[in-house]
Task: structure prediction
Amino acid sequence: MEKKSLSYIVCSLGGSLVVPKSGFDDVFVKSFISLIKERVQKGSRFIIIVGGGATCRNYQESAGRVQSLTNTDLDWIGIHTTHLHAQMLKILFGDIASPHIISDPTIEIDTQSPLIIGGGWKPGWSTDYDAILLAERFGSGKVINLSNIEYVYSADPRIQPNAEKFTELSWQKYRSLLPTQWSPGLSTPFDPIASAQAEKYGITVSICGGGSIDNIAQCLDGNTFKGTIIHP
Result:
C-alpha cells in the first residue's frame, strides 16, 4: 500500500455508541457530527471507521437461531452491518464526507474530502484492524478508539470489582491481557489482531470513553481525557 502525505485523524468508532442495545442513539450521533464538523471547519481531516454495535449482534444472534453459522458467516454479517452504519453516517455528515464509503482500506481513496468514512473489510478481525491499516497508510502515528469502554482494566471490572485500571500501558502489557485469537463478537477495548498490527507499526491507540462528547473533544485536542493510552 502506498503511503499518503495528507494528515488525517483516524478514529475507530465503536458501533455500541451509534447503535447501543436501546437502538439508534440519535442524540449521540447528532452531537458527534457537530463535533467533527466543528473540527473540520478549523482545518482537521478525519478517517472514521465505524463498527456494528447492537445491530450486528442482533442479526448474528437471530441468524444463529435459524441455523448453525461459522465464524466466517458471523463476521460477514458484522461486516455488512458496519457498511450500513457507514452509509448512514456518510449521509448524515452531508457534503463534507467522501461520496464513497471505504470497504477495502487497500484501494485508492478519494482524499479531496476532509472526511472519509468506512466500515469492515474481511473476516478475521474487527474494524479496529482496518483503522490501524489506514493509520499506517496515511502516516498517522495514532488511532483514537471511541467506545462505551472508558479504560483498559486488568480484568472485566463487572466480574472483578478490584481489577486494576490503566491510564497508560505498553502494547506488550496490553496484549498479555487479551486472547490471542479473534472471534466474532469478542468484547475487548481493542481487538487482538489490530493490537498486534498496531504494535508492529509503532502506532499509539487512545482508548477514549465515548459516552461524553466533551471527553471526545478533550482527546481530539490532545488534552487529558478519561481513557487509556496504549503505546509501543
Remarks:
- The longest helix spans residues 71-93.
- The chain has one domain: 9-231.
- The two ends are 22 Å apart (CA to CA).
- The chain has a mean pLDDT of 93.
